[in-house]
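Reopening this one. Same input as before:
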Amino acid sequence: MKKSQILITLLIGMLLIIGGCAAQDTTQDKDKALVQPNIELNVSAAASLTDAANELKELYNKEQPEIKIVYNFAASGTLQKQIEEGAPADVFISAGKKQMDALQDGGLLVDSSRQNLLGNELVLIAPKGSEITGFDELNTDKVNQLSIGTPETVPAGKYAQEALTSMKLWEAIQPKLVMAKDVRQVLTYVESENVDAGLVYRSDTMGTEDIRIVATAPAESHSPIVYPIAIVKASQQQEAAQDFITFLTSDTAIEVFEKYGFQAQKE
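Same output, byte for byte:
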């Protein structure tokens, strides 16, 4: 065989090998793309939803594995400001009507997507060994420090302010107040006994053994506790966002929410 023929044969062989490797790499890339989520959904949710929301994410991904849920948990007022400043968010779940109203009034929501998702109760809690028996003891020597969420940014704190004002305790207990960045921080303060008592949602007390519920604030002492949900208008994933909202209002999701102490809202 001539040298030129040998070289041509070797060159063809090398090209076939290279082509085969490239085809294999392309196939592997396609396989990887199929198993990786191709949609990332950013959900800004009130801190009090943390436990229930994380369980629901796992259930949702069994139905929609191609959608990756990324949560941003914080006080509702903080989340509102983040969305107003352009932070990435597809869905907003607030623990208060005020924060959702502000975004809707600013034209930042898909109005038709808004609905009331959940309800809750406001409860007075204390460390497990505490002898506090009710709200009337907040203005006694039994309580030196009382924690609530900052009313301006934390809906639970605003409800607490309303309830304590209704009970004519708000002015008297001002020196005792310890403000927290969100309702979960209030819970931590009470669990660690850094404060004598706190006001949180009933749902926050589920699964913790270091505190006890002293009393429930009368429903008429504060505004109705409602968790509205809506799609953020700037979202580039509105179809996926609506699918997630539909899931959160399903019987499966409501059962999980109720397990964590929330109340289903009937539209």
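So the earlier flakiness isn't reproducible anymore. For the record, The first strand starts at residue 39 and ends at 46.
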